[in-house]
Structure to design on (908 residues):
């Protein structure tokens, strides 16, 4: 059955891209929940992650080390960004803070041009990328890596937020910042932690997608915006809802591209965004209470 | 009391703007064509930024999709004049009407919501419109662009030279500036500023917040569309890359650099952006010879961040400090963008 | 009050916060030209009641009628448009404007300028602006702070900011002004000034409803009042009647929290 294999193929690539969106979207939700900021520089963390790991591989580092190092470096970039921009302007209005993240994302893109130029580059696949046949569909191991890593990371983060002291502290800041402060939790530190964690996860997303679709200075913008769409469609206030939104967007895009036209896949996702904003602004999968946890 | 007593609270004098524009209008007498082309470009942006400044500073909303209105104006004018052979002035009106309608359609649902949903909705909308410009090839010419847009005419006079277009665009800027300042210095402006002063009290004195935010959004869409229409006639060739999400972001940068608390910020911001862009194009390749693409964005990104952190009211207050020696008291600014005491994450308690 | 004309009627207003009944079935009516007070110890439900009347909080059940029109479920700006304005316990002046602009903003609903006529600055707009500015100045004179007209509002002393709020509430010629704890934070001299302003405006026919726990002011200026405790109305009548009401005396002198209100006076 040819259509079945085609559907399976599309579903598979939708899950892959959905996994990438999910990783970036989760970072987005963490920052939004802890600080209230819509971080428009989120996609740029993925861009840095991809390009830095490529450079490290070119410097003859083993791939796994390059990836880990690039995640660490991007987490540090995230920390610097939080301390110099967000923290310095923390008393400004939310509008100001959001526009600051837009400025940072543009500056990051510019820095990337200065370092890596405008040519797209690529990272070798994590493992031998010989296609695997699965129920008439052809699967690439790198795509499996993407989906698998995303699931592992997302589960690890659930664990972190629900079962570790630091994670619970972060959650507490969201539920009740005042009470959290009384309990000795420092919201400033939590803001830093939130940005560092989401930068690191974003970097991982970048290294995972680099072998699939390459990496260039401007890859972050679309990734970031799509993750954004995913988070809003699923539910901006709630990580599992955002993840569900990410996979939904990924699958919808894959099917639009495969069955209709690649030029229209953006239109379909953004139309869905507008529709959600107008009809169900709290998101498709968010709990009715709308609590930001 | 009479008209003059209003001067005690609002500086509505036409003297300042008239002197500024009189001086500006003398430039063609001495400037080169290059200077005129630069100034004309500033004029296009200034017209957009006047509306966007009101939206950001007075209605407190972020739009990340104004390039779409710019494009709607441009493509409407192109299609109606080049393809349908209609009057360019009619085309400008139709473009403005479509933009206003679209702004209403996006604004009505989003302004009901709290927070920054306009930013998200306009971002999505901007990308949809951009894709439409690219994909609707039979109307827009797709990625290849739209060629042969005729010059704009008035009573048989064709605006083809840089000089004539310079006067045309800046006349529009002048009108938009006075129009917007009049709005700010009125019941509507007080209503909008009251939202920043105390939202709960604004509500209690009967200000319908959503209505005014929406009206300002529509006005800014109209200004932007008119600017886009004029641009199409000026350059005679347009393509979708003029109207990307990046363009929207650059417009926002101009508005912030100039300062959103003063309508003159629109002109200062667009001038700074265009002039700095030209400078960078000339000097950066000297230091980084192999650089390509839009390398200048790094400067604009940093400029945006530094402005917001260290000069949240933009450049205009800095100019006013200098001008203060000549002028009396200036209007106090709305606090949309001044650093306030609201703690980061103040929204968390929603 | 020979000719009693009903202006506001509160009917069985109730507010439940997740199982806790904050306001329980409270009813009363106010006549035109009255100074009417709602008093009660801290936490008695006064503020909740006030917020329901002003549309800040939706009521769980019950209705508010103003001149026969239902206010329940109207938004605050619609209530203002109906002719009911208010002041705030924790001052809410527009701190980004001058004093006179604050008062002019209060006239928002009485003005006709729309965005188009404003942009074109038609002669009618200028006329309306001049008229409103004059009226604003008059209102500032009425409350006695006209000398600050062109200062920024946040530079005013606390007591004057409260007077400014009253001027802002009065400029639109409302039928009813609601005052939320108007005496809170004022010193004796400022309180006296405020009482004077309220009485003067009442003499011109204005109606006031205020919530307050400063007993002394309430008793000295209000025509009638209701007393709420634990969300329930425990008394209604003239100040003299209230003094004699055993339930009220018990509520006010019965526990420590209540005493605070009296001591505060």
């Amino acid at each position: 059955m040819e259509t079945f294999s085609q559907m399976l193929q599309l579903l598979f690539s939708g899950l892959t891209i959905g996994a990438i969106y999910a990783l970036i979207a989760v970072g987005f939700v963490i920052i939004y929940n802890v600080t209230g900021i819509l971080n428009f520089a989120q996609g740029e963390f993925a861009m840095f992650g991809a390009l830095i790991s490529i450079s490290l591989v070119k410097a003859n580092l083993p791939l796994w080390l390059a990836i880990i190092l690039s995640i660490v470096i991007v987490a540090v970039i995230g920390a610097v960004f939080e301390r110099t921009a967000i923290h310095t302007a923390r008393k400004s209005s939310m509008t100001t803070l959001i526009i600051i993240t837009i400025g940072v994302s543009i500056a990051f893109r510019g820095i990337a041009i200065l370092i890596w130029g405008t040519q797209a580059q690529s990272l070798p696949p994590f493992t031998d990328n010989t296609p695997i046949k699965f129920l008439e569909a052809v699967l690439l191991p790198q795509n499996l890596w993407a989906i698998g890593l995303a699931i592992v990371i997302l589960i690890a983060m659930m664990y972190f937020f629900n079962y570790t002291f630091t994670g619970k502290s972060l959650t507490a800041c969201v539920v009740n910042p005042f009470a959290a402060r009384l309990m000795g939790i420092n919201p400033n530190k939590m803001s830093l932690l939130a940005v560092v964690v989401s930068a690191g996860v974003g970097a991982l997303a970048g290294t995972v997608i680099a072998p699939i679709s390459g990496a260039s200075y401007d890859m972050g913008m679309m990734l970031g915006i799509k993750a954004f769409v995913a988070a809003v469609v699923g539910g901006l206030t709630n990580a599992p809802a955002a993840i569900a939104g990410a996979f939904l967007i990924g699958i919808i895009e894959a099917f639009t591209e495969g069955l209709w036209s690649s030029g229209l896949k953006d239109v379909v996702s953004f139309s869905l965004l507008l529709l959600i904003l107008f009809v169900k602004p709290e998101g498709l999968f968010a709990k009715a209470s709308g609590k930001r946890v | 009391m009479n008209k003059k007593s209003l001067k005690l609270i609002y500086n509505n004098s036409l003297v300042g703007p008239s002197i500024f524009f009189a001086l500006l209008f003398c430039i063609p007498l001495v400037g080169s064509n290059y200077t005129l082309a630069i100034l004309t470009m500033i004029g296009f942006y200034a017209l957009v930024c006047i509306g966007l400044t009101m939206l950001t500073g007075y209605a407190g909303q972020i739009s990340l999709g104004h390039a779409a209105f710019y494009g709607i104006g441009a493509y409407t004018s192109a299609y109606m004049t080049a393809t349908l052979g209609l009057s360019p002035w009619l085309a400008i009106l139709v473009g403005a009407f479509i933009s206003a309608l679209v702004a209403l359609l996006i604004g009505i649902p989003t302004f009901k919501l709290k927070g920054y949903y306009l930013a998200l909705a306009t971002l999505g909308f901007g990308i949809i419109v951009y894709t439409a410009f690219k994909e609707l090839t039979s109307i827009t010419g797709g990625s290849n662009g739209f060629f042969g847009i005729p010059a704009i005419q008035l009573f048989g006079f064709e605006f083809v030279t840089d000089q004539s277009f310079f006067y045309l665009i800046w006349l529009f800027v002048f009108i938009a500036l006075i129009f917007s300042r009049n709005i700010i210095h009125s019941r509507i402006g007080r209503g909008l500023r009251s939202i920043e002063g105390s939202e709960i009290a604004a509500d209690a004195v009967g200000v319908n917040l959503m209505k005014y935010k929406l009206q300002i959004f529509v006005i800014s869409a109209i200004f932007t569309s008119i600017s886009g229409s004029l641009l199409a006639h000026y350059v005679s060739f347009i393509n979708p890359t003029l109207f990307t999400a990046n363009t929207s972001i650059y417009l926002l940068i101009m508005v912030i650099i100039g300062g959103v608390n003063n309508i003159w910020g629109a002109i200062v911001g667009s001038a700074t952006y265009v002039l700095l862009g030209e400078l960078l194009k000339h000097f950066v390749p000297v230091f980084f010879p192999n650089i390509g693409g839009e390398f200048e964005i790094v400067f604009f990104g940093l400029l945006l961040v530094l402005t917001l952190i260290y000069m949240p009211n933009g450049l205009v207050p800095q100019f006013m400090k200098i001008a203060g020696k000549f002028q009396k008291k200036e209007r106090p600014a709305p606090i949309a963008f001044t650093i306030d005491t609201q703690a980061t994450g103040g929204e968390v308690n929603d | 009050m020979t000719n009693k004309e009903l202006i506001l009627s509160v009917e069985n207003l109730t507010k439940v916060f997740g199982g806790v009944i904050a306001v329980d079935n409270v009813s009363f009516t106010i006549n035109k030209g009255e100074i009417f007070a709602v008093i009660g110890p801290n936490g008695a439900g006064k503020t909740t009641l006030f917020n329901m009347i002003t549309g800040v909080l939706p009521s769980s059940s019950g209705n508010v009628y103003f001149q026969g029109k239902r206010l329940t479920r109207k938004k605050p700006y619609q209530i203002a448009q109906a002719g009911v304005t208010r002041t705030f316990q924790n001052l809410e002046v527009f701190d980004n404007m001058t004093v006179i602009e604050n008062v002019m903003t209060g006239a928002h609903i009485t003005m006709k300028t729309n965005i188009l006529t404003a942009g074109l600055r038609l002669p009618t707009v200028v006329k309306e602006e001049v008229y409103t500015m004059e009226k604003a100045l008059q209102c500032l004179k009425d409350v006695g702070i006209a000398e600050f007209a062109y200062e920024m509002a946040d530079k005013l002393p606390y007591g004057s900011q409260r007077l400014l709020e009253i001027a802002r509430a009065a400029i639109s010629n409302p039928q009813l002004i609601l005052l939320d704890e108007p005496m809170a934070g004022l010193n004796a001299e400022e309180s006296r000034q405020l009482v004077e302003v309220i009485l003067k405006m009442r003499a011109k026919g204005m109606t006031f409803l205020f919530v307050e726990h400063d007993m002394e002011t309430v008793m000295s200026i209000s025509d009638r009042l209701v007393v709420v405790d634990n969300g329930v109305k425990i008394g209604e009548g003239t100040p003299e009647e209230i003094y004699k009401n055993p339930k009220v005396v018990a509520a006010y002198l019965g526990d420590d929290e209540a005493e605070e209100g009296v001591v505060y006076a």
